[in-house]
């Protein structure tokens, strides 16, 4: 078909090298490779072809609230939230970003006052996502600066980052700073049914989501924000204008089609008849977690956070959480640098200090390929 010709005339990206029985297995990043199997199985239903004369303009919709949001993308995102029930989207402005990483920076910009000249403190409860300190500080902004663990914060005004379920440890979190002048950014990258029971439709001031961890399309680099306050949303839009003059329309169209297929499958086909995305990923994750818990239980030297379960409004039953990362602790005498110890055994992980805690714990991605996960499990089982 003509669509095949179009997609095969340019060489596709090579991705990461394959993992073999004795190669290094890299589970440092949370690359969502696990989803490839699902999308392989859907054939071309979610594939799009963009004619060369389309998406040429800078503008998506000059009559909308945000001129660079594709109306089709906005429609499918709102539909997805209604389907899953993880967030309230009615009454919220929807913004799009190059990954939620860009929207995170737009939110810091929008929430930091410009008047008094002292940078706004940015905090998050430890262990916190390792990118928060680095992304907050890398430009040495005069508007905001990283101020560490929310538990040790003593000032009266800050931006608190709330990640739930939490990267790295999977904890279900609420804001911990009670002061009225605190502003929050809720990072809901993993608030999807494959990772955690959907316990409520969240309705916070700024909520960030990403297709990276929802459908596995991290390379599309697309995130979205639900923002309650109009002025804050307008400032975020200004950031996006100055930073990248909007967001790729091609990516938005692709993501819109992908989300449309996810929603169509749930709305039009009974569960069990076709492969539904969240059910597929939930099953994969549950399988991986039970294998990991089994080898950890027999190891005698490792431990994991306790399993969490509760009623899921999406699944309409009690379900067990399957966090995207394993927060693995080592109790073996003499192993102080656990990341280094695992590296000697050809397993690359991310050590606790990057998340604001000690070195005897590491974060391991649970989202990689079957090959990488299998080799990882085999190596952990052999460690005594
Ligand atoms: N927030 C959290 C908690 C994450 O783990 C990630 C991805 N690792 C992101 C945000 C960023 O996602 P992206 O920029 O791919 O949308």
Automatic annotation (TrEMBL):
Residues 1-22 are annotated as: Disordered. Residues 1-11 have a biased composition (Polar residues). SUPFAM superfamilies: PLP-dependent transferases (SSF53383). Pfam families: Alliinase_C. Keywords: Membrane, Pyridoxal phosphate, Transmembrane, Transmembrane helix. The keyword Transmembrane helix applies. InterPro entries: Alliinase_C (IPR006948), Alliinase_N_sf (IPR037029), Ethylene_sulfur-biosynth (IPR050478), PyrdxlP-dep_Trfase (IPR015424), PyrdxlP-dep_Trfase_major (IPR015421), PyrdxlP-dep_Trfase_small (IPR015422). PANTHER family: BIFUNCTIONAL ASPARTATE AMINOTRANSFERASE AND GLUTAMATE/ASPARTATE-PREPHENATE AMINOTRANSFERASE-RELATED, TRYPTOPHAN AMINOTRANSFERASE-RELATED PROTEIN 2. Belongs to the alliinase family. This is Alliinase C-terminal domain-containing protein.
């Amino acid at each position: 078909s003509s669509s095949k010709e179009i997609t095969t005339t340019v060489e596709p990206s090579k991705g990461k090298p394959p993992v073999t029985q004795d190669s290094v297995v890299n589970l440092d990043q949370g690359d969502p490779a696990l989803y490839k199997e699902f999308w392989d199985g859907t054939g071309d239903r979610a594939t799009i072809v963009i004619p060369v004369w389309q998406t040429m303009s800078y503008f998506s919709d000059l009559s909308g609230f945000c001129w660079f949001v594709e109306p089709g993308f906005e429609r499918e995102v709102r539909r997805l939230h209604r389907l899953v029930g993880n967030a309230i989207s009615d009454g919220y402005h929807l913004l799009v970003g190059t990954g939620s990483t860009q929207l995170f920076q737009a939110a810091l910009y929008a929430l930091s006052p410009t008047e008094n000249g002292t940078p706004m403190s940015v905090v998050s409860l430890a262990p916190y996502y390792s990118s928060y300190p680095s992304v907050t500080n890398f430009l040495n902004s005069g508007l905001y600066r990283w101020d560490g663990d929310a538990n040790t914060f003593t000032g009266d005004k800050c931006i608190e980052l709330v990640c739930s379920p939490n990267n790295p440890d999977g904890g279900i979190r609420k804001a911990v700073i009670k002061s009225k002048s605190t502003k929050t950014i809720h990072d809901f990258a993993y608030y999807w049914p494959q990772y955690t029971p959907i316990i409520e439709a969240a309705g916070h001031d700024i909520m960030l989501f990403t297709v990276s961890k929802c459908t596995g399309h991290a390379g599309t680099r697309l995130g979205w924000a639900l923002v309650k306050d109009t002025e804050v949303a307008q400032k975020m839009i200004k950031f996006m204008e100055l930073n990248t003059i909007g967001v790729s329309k091609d990516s938005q169209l692709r993501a819109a089609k992908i989300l449309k297929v996810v929603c169509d499958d749930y709305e039009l086909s009974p569960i069990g008849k076709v492969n539904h995305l969240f059910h597929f990923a939930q099953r994969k994750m549950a399988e991986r977690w039970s294998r990991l818990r089994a080898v950890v239980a027999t190891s005698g030297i490792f431990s994991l956070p306790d399993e969490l379960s509760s009623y899921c409004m999406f699944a309409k039953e009690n379900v067990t959480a399957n966090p995207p990362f394993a927060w693995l602790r080592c109790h073996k005498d003499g192993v102080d640098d656990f990341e280094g110890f695992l590296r000697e055994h050809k397993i690359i992980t991310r050590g606790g200090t990057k998340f604001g805690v000690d070195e005897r714990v590491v974060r391991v991605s649970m989202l990689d390929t079957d090959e990488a996960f299998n080799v990882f499990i085999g190596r952990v089982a052999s460690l005594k």
